From TrEMBL:
Signal peptide per UniProt: 1-27
Entry keyword set: Signal
Protein name stated in the entry: YcdB/YcdC domain-containing protein
Domain SLH: 611-672, 675-737
Pfam families cross-referenced by the UniProt entry: DUF4901 (PF16244), SLH (PF00395)
Length: 740
């Protein structure tokens, strides 16, 4: 048994689990986001686990897969545990060069038996995972199942198909490897657990590159009896009878492109399921006999309030930090390490106060963020609540008292935001381990709440401020609520698309080892699904790829279909699409740029200069402005007087674009060193000769009967084939500069 000596605390991100759960987590407005988990480090003298023991576990689970990594290549992290889970975790990682490419990976083992909880791996060679991929989704599923069988105690695991589209390649640049993700839940008597899963990601070359396991031991667990469950049809009727819908804004955030987009959605009633034995409604805080009702919007302030402190100085922010971080203990010393200034994604200047708690010979630290212009807190977490366990013997205040405290702290530390935010629409989450209430105050736009843009406040047992986070995102375009489909139509869609999944769910309470049987609503095949109120379509589909039919073509059908399903090619009627039609330069550029980047070109770290205009005829109001400017940043185009958007793209012009993407233009300009063996070589413009030679030698463009046809049109079929081949060449050559 490890003696838990708190030597330090580090904030750990839940990015991996959020990434895997994103379809469900983003779609659900009913499940409040949990506060960031805190990892508490354990002294190396308090554990007998060594690096050699962890390496042995890797070899046991993975065989000789990582034999190229020596013991010296591995690094072992310090053992840690969480405030809500005292099981100790141990991290093992490596990073090395293999054939000039970065290869890295990591493993997290937990408990005395060193169970693998988390694993990630970036292999050196992913060429076979680029389209056309070596492994299909069905092939990858078999790989995932084989991997699952190697993990201890997984014989009862079951594939989950109700968490949304499990292929996370939709919308990614086609230069990136294709991957497939699968979720498996443990079961009891064939019934899956609602909040326990193992997620496995498989590259399309057949390599498992990610695994995350969120499961618990059930050796002491008790379960509701299946024989006592209510008839499914009766519960279905109960839900339909009490079904209601809410109109909300939903923030769809792309973490890779760093763009936030507001969508208008309808969400279903604010309950998570129905107890299969007694018919009670399941909420975030347990079961209730009353039908959960969403509260109405009530702004925290009817009028804008003055900022806390305009133009805050360094000295003032330091004093604020000291007052917030003050600890009543002779054993602890607070030390302000540094105060930095930075600009955030909204263009605001932020003070970041880095601090340390010195505790004997040890220490731990974090940071506080404050808006310089308003003097208001952006990010704050009170480490003392976890580090010094101040709440262990405190009887927690009531929910209403905690809410009053939270609003009071907001008026004190973030007043200028309050006229844009509402009181909580759902009950707070209460963490019985830390004795903390977690409140979510949603942003209000056009009179309705915004999912994914809120102020979160944590109140400790004694009423002190535990954490405060302002998630105010700069969004200019909000869909008009007047364009939404009717609530009655949305309600009918939810009712018609409703089915039930039977699950075991563990509730917070006195008996934390008991699992209740719950009927969970599934809408259009997905748990917690929503409806796009503007289009009238489901926000999430079980498999997006099935929504778009194939394009038929004798030589480029597969490539055209692939680009269509990746949202690169925009075709309204695939059955009647003419792949032999000439592609205009503007359309060809859009296809090429979308293939190589995430498509949100005006956004990036701390924004980009959107006032630049490289061509006199392509200003900010032109529909291709962002595409053209991104192409300039990528080097595909060079600024000139005009870009002929509607002119037909020729084959030799496409050759130049492809070479520029690969950053080989310097070589291509030496046209005198190339010998062109095409029978129509004399028709190739001398300025394009080097480009044509390179794309031909690299197999990016094909000749027909030994003719390159340099001045002929580029068809959609031609462009699709060349684009797919280019993507593979980009990946193999690591030519990913400026593609975001």
């Amino acid at each position: 048994m490890v003696n838990f000596k708190k030597l330090g605390i580090i904030l750990t991100s839940t990015a991996f689990s959020v990434g895997v759960l994103s379809p469900m987590a983003q779609a659900s407005a009913n499940v409040q986001e949990s506060p960031e988990r805190v990892a508490i480090q354990v002294s190396s003298t308090e554990t007998k686990v060594t690096k050699s023991m962890l390496i042995k576990q890797v070899q046991t689970l993975f065989g000789d897969r990582f034999n190229f990594v020596t013991e010296n290549d591995f690094d072992m992290g310090q053992g840690h545990y969480y405030s809500d889970d005292k099981t100790v975790r141990y991290d093992l990682s490596f990073h090395k060069k293999v054939n000039g490419k970065d290869v890295y990976g990591g493993f997290t083992f937990k408990g005395d038996n060193l169970e693998l909880e988390n694993f990630f791996y970036q292999p050196a060679n992913v060429a076979d995972a680029i389209y056309p991929a070596k492994y299909s989704k069905a092939d990858a599923k078999k790989v995932a199942e084989d991997f699952l069988k190697k993990m201890p105690n997984t014989a009862n695991y079951k594939l989950r198909e109700d968490l949304g589209n499990d292929n996370f390649d939709f919308g990614r640049p086609i230069t990136e490897p294709i991957s497939y993700s699968f979720a498996y839940s443990p079961t009891h008597n064939g019934v899956p657990f609602s909040d326990e899963s193992m997620y496995i990601e498989v590259l399309a070359n057949g390599e498992v590159v990610n695994m995350y396991r969120n499961t618990e031991s059930t050796s002491k667990a008790t379960f509701d009896s299946l024989e006592q469950k209510k008839n499914e049809a009766d519960v279905l009727a109960q839900i339909r009878e009490n079904l209601s819908v809410e109109l909300r804004y939903f923030i769809d955030y792309n973490y890779q492109s760093e763009e936030a987009i507001a969508k208008l959605v309808y969400m279903p009633s604010s309950f998570m399921g129905v107890n299969a034995l007694n018919g009670q409604w399941q909420t975030t805080n347990g079961f209730t006999s009353q039908v959960p009702k969403t509260k109405g919007v009530e702004k925290l302030s009817a009028q804008p309030l003055e900022p806390r402190k305009k133009n805050m100085t360094l000295a003032e922010v330091e004093e604020l930090a000291k007052s917030l971080l003050k600890v009543d203990s002779d054993k602890v010393k607070l030390r302000i390490e540094a105060i930095d200034e930075r600009e955030n994604e909204n263009g605001e200047t932020i003070y970041s106060v880095n601090y340390m708690y010195d505790y004997g010979n040890h220490g731990s630290g974090s940071s506080i963020e404050v808006n310089k212009a308003t003097g208001e807190i952006i990010n704050f977490w009170n480490m003392g609540n976890e580090f010094f366990e101040t709440n262990d013997k405190v009887e927690p205040i009531s929910k209403d008292a905690a809410l009053a405290k939270a609003i009071g702290y907001l008026k004190e530390f973030a007043p200028s935001h309050l006229h844009n935010y509402s009181k909580p629409l759902e009950d707070p989450m209460y963490d019985k381990d830390s004795k903390q209430y977690n409140f979510s105050f949603p942003r209000i736009v056009n009179g309705i709440a915004v999912m994914g843009d809120e102020i979160s406040v944590t109140i400790s047992a004694d009423g002190k401020l535990g954490a405060l986070h302002v998630n105010n995102q700069k969004i200019d375009n909000w869909p008009s609520i007047n364009k939404a489909i009717s609530a009655d139509k949305a309600k009918t869609m939810f009712s018609d698309g409703l089915k039930l999944n039977l699950q075991y769910s563990k509730q917070d309470g006195e008996d934390n080892n008991h699992y209740n049987l719950v009927y969970s609503p599934v809408y259009n095949g997905i748990l917690f699904n929503n409806i796009d109120a503007t289009t009238g379509e489901w926000l999430l589909k079980a498999d997006d790829s099935k929504e778009k039919p194939a394009i038929s073509h004798p030589t480029a059908g597969e490539e055209l279909t692939y680009l269509l399903r990746q949202n690169v090619l925009d075709v309204k009627n695939p059955a009647n699409f003419n792949a032999e039609a000439a592609v205009a330069k503007g359309e060809a550029l859009k296809i090429l740029v979308k293939s190589l980047s995430y498509g949100y070109f005006e956004y990036g770290p701390y924004g980009r200069d959107n006032d630049k205009q490289s061509f006199s005829n392509i200003d900010k109001n032109h529909p291709l402005y962002e595409t053209v400017e991104q192409a300039v940043r990528m080097g595909i185009l060079q600024p000139a007087d005009k870009f002929e958007v509607d002119a037909t793209l020729t084959r030799q012009e496409l050759a130049k674009w492809l070479v520029r993407v690969l950053d080989l233009e310097k070589a291509a300009k030496h046209s005198d060193i190339y010998k062109l063996n095409f029978t129509d070589a004399d028709t190739i413009d001398s300025a394009h000769a080097g480009y044509v030679a390179l794309v031909s030698a690299m197999g990016l463009m094909d000749a027909q009967q030994n003719k390159f046809n340099a001045t002929e049109k580029v068809t959609y079929a031609d462009l699709a084939v060349s684009t797919v081949r280019l993507a593979k060449a980009v990946n193999e050559n690591n030519s990913s500069r400026n593609y975001w």
